[in-house]
Each structure stands twice: as C-alpha cells, then as structure tokens.
Amino acid sequence: MKRALLLNAVNPKIGGVLVRGKKGTAKSTAVRSLAALLPEVTVVQGCPYNCSPEDRQGLCNRCEPGDNDAQTVVRQIPIIDLPVGATEDRLVGSLDIEEAIKTGNRVFEPGLIAATHQGILYIDEVNLLNDHLVDILLDAAAMGRNYVEREGISVTHRSEFILVGTMNPEEGDLRPQLLDRFGLAVEVEGRFSPEERQLIVKRRIAYEADPHGFMSEWRQTEEEERARVLRSQKLLPQVVVGDDILELITSICAEYDVDGMRGDIVMYKTALTIAAYENRTDVNAEDVREAANLALLHRERRQPFQQPNLATEQLDSMVDDFQGQDNQRESSDQNPRTKERAILSPRTYHRQKMKQKRRT
Fold this sequence. Notes:
Blueprint: H1 2-10, E1 17-21, H2 27-33, E2 41-44, E3 72-75, E4 79-81, H3 88-92, E5 93-95, H4 97-103, E6 108-110, H5 112-116, E7 120-124, H6 131-143, E8 145-150, E9 153-158, E10 162-167, H7 176-179, E11 184-188, H8 194-209, H9 211-235, H10 243-255, H11 262-277, H12 285-295, H13 312-330, H14 336-342, H15 346-359
Parallel strand pairs: 1-10, 1-11, 4-7, 7-10
Antiparallel strand pairs: 2-3, 5-6, 8-9
C-alpha cells in the first residue's frame, strides 16, 4: 500500500490507487499521512482553482496569463475528502445562486475538484459512492482537466490530482468498468504477528502521550522520504524503457487476457516510476514484475463474486524466462540454437517452455 501511494506521489499520471481491505487495516491513516511526504506546492494566492504560476497555459480566467504581478503562496499539498453523499454540483461546481440573485450575473462556483488541483482527493468507501460520480472523478483525473456545463455556463480548468479510494470488500464491490479506471490496486491484509501488534500499540500510546515529541522523532525520516520523492520526480523524464521491456509488458497483459490497453499503459508508467524511485534511468524486468502486481490485481478476469487474486506463478515464470533470455543473448553469436530462442517474444518463449515441461 505504501509503495503504491508513493509511486502515485512521484507520478500522478499513473491514475490513482484503490486500496482494498477490511476494517482496522490503517487504510485511511496511510492515505492521510501521504501529504506529509509530498513536496510543498506554489499556487496563486486566492485562486479557487489552485493555479500554479509556472503553468502559464493552464491558468484560469481569474489568473490572467501575462499577469506577472499575481501574488503566490507556498503551502502543503491539500487532502480533500469526498463524502459518500456528495452531489454532482458539489463535486464539479455549480451556479452561484446568491450572486445571481444579488447582481443578476451568472457566476460559476467551483466544486471539490477545483480545490483538489495539485492535491490529493480521498474517497473513503468508494464502493458506496454513486457510480456516476466515480466516473466523473476518474475522467477528470485521467484527462487532467475538468469540463463543466451548467445553466448556460461553460467552464474548464486544470484538475491534476492524486485520486485515492479505499473500500471494504465486505460492503460490496465496484463495477469492473470502474475498477479498470483506477491505475493501481492493492489488497491490505489484516493479519499481524504478535510482534507487529506490540509495535503498533507502543507507537500509538507514545503518540497519544506526546504527539509533538512523537512527530519530532520521525521528522527526519519524513524529510528523507520527501527528498526522495522530489528527486524521483526530477529524474522521471530521463528514464528510458527499452523495446524488450515494452515487449515483456505487452506479453504479460496478453497472457493474462487483460481487456483494453489501459493495463499495458499503466504498467509502462508504473515500471518507469519504479526505476526513477530507485534512482535508475533504465527499467529492468524486476520493475515490470512489481508493476504487474500493482496494475493487474483488479484487471485479471474473474468470475462474479470472486475476489481479486492475481496468479503470480505465471507472472514470475514469464519474468524469469525473460531474464534467462537476457543471459542467452550474450552468448547468441556462439550458439545458433540459443540465438533462435533469444529472438522469441517473452510470451512465445514462455509457452514453448510450458509445453516442454508438460511433455516431460
């Protein structure tokens, strides 16, 4: 869970995180603590859309492009909670009735999506939220812009945010179409060893006894993690994905019968981000393995009422075969038979290997 949240913090274009788990597994606690690990952002002071002064093309009508005198303020990334009972007008914005009555002018009142720009939008019990609202949120997060048509008013503004949803599978599931729209998904286990429970209790009691002292004790760790996230964001544009790695990604998605292309794209972005987070400029097979575990859990085909459970044996076999082929490529010039196997796609090579195992 922590890894998926941090990867989205480095690269929000991954598409958000869906955290599944039973009650008492610290889902909400982990999400709310993410803001403390993120770098501060600069916004135009008083702007309801949280416009960034550096994004000259994305400024709203109130922050005129070319107005260099606009005052700015640096602040911590906001976390906006979306209530389960929220309406569409509260989410995307609506007509300011009070202003319309007073002046007769139609003025747009921004919603929660506008306030979340450059921040985190958190939905607790996302499976209980109206499907139409979930669809609007996922569209805004994917496109990076929010389009509003209300009572003759047409408004568009930036909406780049990290979307995080948590849910308890015991209370119902999301429709497959909505599940697929979340970039990553993780399953949180509620089982803890006695030693882990003891550590959790000690830390909780220590925090209640002296909150400021407890936070001071962990401040250096937070600063180190924040610096790592910032460094990863700067390194991200330099990371390169080789054609062989891309072929491995698409072969895995094809082998798992993933519908559409969203799974392939999310795996690509996630593997890219993992490499940057590990301070590397090239993506390797282990990055793809981790990305697949995060991106395919909720995309693998399953029967109705069947809980997500990714078959990792097949994934591990394909990645291991790919790594084995890397070693074979080094000696392909000396051995023609090895060269023939080395040029096979990961999926074809994996299937040929499985056939040989069945024969023996």
